[in-house]
Design brief:
The protein is mainly alpha-helical and 98 residues long. It has a domain at 6-45: Histone, subunit A (Orthogonal Bundle), CATH 1.10.20. It contains 3 helices and 2 strands, in the order αααββ. It has helices at 6-15, 22-45, 74-78; strands spanning 84-85, 88-89. The chain has a two-stranded antiparallel ribbon. α1 crosses α2. The longest helix has 24 residues, at 22-45. The radius of gyration is 30 Å and the shape is elongated.
């Protein structure tokens, strides 16, 4: 078990201006101890010949090929528009621009 004490957790909470109850200090002492112990275990296994990785599994490209397919014509796209300006949708202004 790590050597993190309740006094250290209380001191860190004081420095961070976090008001912790005695129960929270006890719980955090235990939790932080487990975290430190877990890091120590990983450090034991991580040797100089172990390559660093960002993901446990290799990533592959998930993009699909770009295929051109028929699309809507301007008239079809604007057929249900409540208002239009030439080949564009007309919408109410939302910004006060001069």
């Amino acid at each position: 078990m790590s050597e993190i004490t309740a006094e250290q957790v209380a001191h860190l909470a004081y420095l961070a201006r976090i008001d912790l109850s005695p129960l929270e200090i006890t719980n955090l002492t235990h939790d932080l101890g487990q975290i430190v112990d877990s890091i120590a275990k990983v450090s034991e296994v991580a040797t100089a010949d172990t390559p660093a990785t960002s993901h446990p599994m290799p990533l592959t490209n998930v993009f699909r090929e770009d295929i051109v397919v028929p699309s809507l014509t301007v008239e079809q796209a604007l057929s249900g528009a409540p208002d239009r300006a030439g080949d564009k949708f007309r919408v109410p202004a939302i910004l006060d621009e001069e």
